[in-house]
Design a protein that fits this description.
The chain has 93 residues and is α+β, with helices and mostly antiparallel strands. The chain has two domains: 36 residues, no CATH class; 41 residues. The chain is built from two helices and two strands, in the order E-E-H-H. A hairpin with a 2-residue loop joins strand 1 and strand 2. It is elongated, with a radius of gyration of 23 Å.
């Protein structure tokens, strides 16, 4: 279980204040949180918005490819070329 820092009360229209969190983490007006329910507990996950035209980068499929590329780079399974002609020659083989 995490650290208990206080209590909040549900107010009219389901509103709660998270002001007591400001001492423990940076919070700003307009911050966005994803709300998750885990084992009857409410979990707030800080989120950042991204422009719609960049959403493709954060899909599971693309991120899996990014992870695979990072692993290939770390393992040395990459080649570099000083000239484009050398790259094209390699691709033709």
């Amino acid at each position: 279980m995490g650290k208990v820092i206080g209590n909040v009360m549900v107010q009219k229209r389901g509103v709660i204040s998270l002001g007591l969190l400001k001492e423990h983490m940076p919070l700003n007006d307009g911050d966005i949180f994803q709300v998750q329910v885990e084992d009857s507990k409410i979990v707030l996950v800080p989120m950042k918005l991204i422009p719609a035209e960049q959403a493709w980068f954060w899909t599971r499929e693309w991120q899996a490819g990014e992870k695979e590329a990072d692993e290939d780079i770390a393992a040395g399974r990459v080649k570099t070329f000083d000239r484009v002609d050398d790259l094209l020659e390699e691709l033709d083989q």
